[in-house]
Amino acid sequence: MEKISIQSTYGERFQYCWGCGPKNEEGLHLKSYPSEDRESCIATVVPDDMYTGGVPHNLFGGMIATLFDCHGTASAAWFAHREKGLELRSDTVIGRFITAHLEVDFKKPVPMGEEIKLTARAEEIGERKVIVAMEMEAAEEIRAAAKMVAVAVKDTM
């Protein structure tokens, strides 16, 4: 079965996000995928050295929030899609979600040069909003956690 990133199924006009847009040439190109059990979404990234923070060799907080932002909205789109009984296929044009609220708890420094794993789970799925809980893990330790309220937008936004 082909592994399809959620971001690759965004409608044409929504594919230019700096953090996760597949068509933003200078962006990060974060890719989020539904887990095998369809209960969570996973993204992994090894941040470039340019994103170090005030503490050398650790990821700066703004990038941590950016990763949560992009992964969270993609995950919300997947959870809403799944809730409708739909599958993620190469011809899918998934509904787009944006961040209404994001809170981040910074627990431990996030080291540079190591893979970071983001995991998202839906806490609540409504008609127009999804509440997403997320964790960021590096070196087998939870480094940050976040909670997001994501809302669906119309394709004409």
Automatic annotation (TrEMBL):
Pfam families: 4HBT (PF03061). Coiled coil: none annotated. Its EC number is 3.1.2.2. It is found in: Cell projection, Ruffle membrane; Cytoplasm; Membrane. GO terms for biological process: fatty acid metabolic process. The keyword DNA-binding does not apply. GO terms for cellular component: cytoplasm; membrane. InterPro entries: HotDog_dom_sf (IPR029069), THEM4/THEM5_acyl-CoA_thioest (IPR052365), Thioestr_dom (IPR006683). It is a peripheral membrane protein. It comes from the Bacteria. It catalyses: hexadecanoyl-CoA + H2O = hexadecanoate + CoA + H(+); decanoyl-CoA + H2O = decanoate + CoA + H(+); (9Z)-octadecenoyl-CoA + H2O = (9Z)-octadecenoate + CoA + H(+); dodecanoyl-CoA + H2O = dodecanoate + CoA + H(+). Keywords: Apoptosis, Cell membrane, Cell projection, Cytoplasm, Fatty acid metabolism, Hydrolase, Lipid metabolism, Membrane, Transit peptide. Residues 58-141 form the Thioesterase domain. GO terms for molecular function: hydrolase activity. PANTHER family: ACYL-COENZYME A THIOESTERASE THEM4 (PTHR12418). Belongs to the THEM4/THEM5 thioesterase family. This is Acyl-coenzyme A thioesterase THEM4. It comes from Aedoeadaptatus nemausensis.
